[in-house]
Amino acid sequence: MDLTTLLHIALLIAAGGLAAATVAGFFGASSGWLDYAAHFRPHFAVAALLAAAAGLLLDWQRSVLLVSALVVVGIVNIGVILVESRYRVAPAAAHGGTILKIASVNVNFLNRQHALLDGWVRRERPDVLVVTEVDHTWVDAIEALGDLYPHRAIGRTKFVTMLSRRPWASFEVVSGPRARQGILVGRFDVGGTSLTVIGAHPASPVRPRWVPARDAELDVIARLAREAPGPVAAMGDFNATPWSAPMRRLVRTSPLRYADLQATTWPTSVPRWLGIKIDHIMLGNGCAVVDYQAGPNLGSDHRPVMATIRCG
User: Fold this and answer.
1) Is the pLDDT of residue 8 over 90?
2) CB count, 10 Å around CB of 54?
3) Which end of the chain is more exposed for a tag (fewer CB within 10 A), N or C?
4) pLDDT tens digits, residue range 288-311?
5) Mean pLDDT lowest for which of 91-95, 143-147, 176-180, 226-230?
6) Residue 240 contacts residue 278 (beta carbons within 8 Å)
7) Which pLDDT score is estimated for 300?
8) For residue range 12-68, what is the model confidence (pLDDT) as tens digits?
């Protein structure tokens, strides 16, 4: 068997795998296992188009059907991405409303590089900060930010904290499906308007039995956003990409829209172009984005996300 034949077989196997994964992603609502595939639609699109190009270079006459199938796979995944891009928040107008900087970071239970978080927060100084995976090893580091953040909700849930430089008009912990893993809801008076900020860390889907809890928590976030009396922002490690079934449901059943759809956040151990986007800042009901960025590596497996927003 010559090298060309072996490469052709490899492309055939790749095409079959990419096609199966692409189709599986459409059935994520029925199975957590199938929903895993949906997270990697950008990767599937790029891989399929690169494989199609390789097929053309290899032997286009022999590979025409295979190349066509790969192009279709690439187009299908790009199509899904383009559909979800409709749920990105509009850029802010040049004038009007109140400017705020909000941010979220998953610090990781195992991360002990507390000084990296402290330095980043003091450089950026977000007005409202949601920190997830705050266990007992992180409490002192979070309390050390008290000179910047006089308003702190530490220990109100098991692993999620909200810090603010301005007082909240009200604050509550909304129960979810997991004990002590509630969702934080702070409401702020912003130029005479009530801004609702939701901070959450839905369950990780690394085990299929945790998937229903994650999806239920995302549904709670959608409900809270619908019930918000004015502008609303939701942020945290949602453990789901925009292409996954629960996130597609969230944007279709709530006013929340993505501040960004491109910057990947997890894991920090790979180049950004290989990562996926599971840490989100989402806005609705009159909040628009002025600027957005995924921050540097702070020792966690997640990158922080930060947005300058205009509300009102």
Assistant:
1) no
2) 16
3) N
4) 999 999 999 999 999 999 999 998
5) 91-95
6) yes
7) 97
8) 888 999 999 999 999 999 888 899 999 999 999 999 999 998 888 877 666 788 889
Could you tell me the maximum CA-CA distance found in the chain, to the nearest angstrom?
Answer: 75
d(CA 180, CA 134) in angstroms, rounded, equals 13
Tokens 């928040």 appear where?
89
Taking phi over 0 as left and psi of -120 to 50 as alpha, with beta for the rest, 129 belongs to beta
Residue 100 has pLDDT above 90, yes or no: yes
91-311 has which CATH code? 3.60.10.10
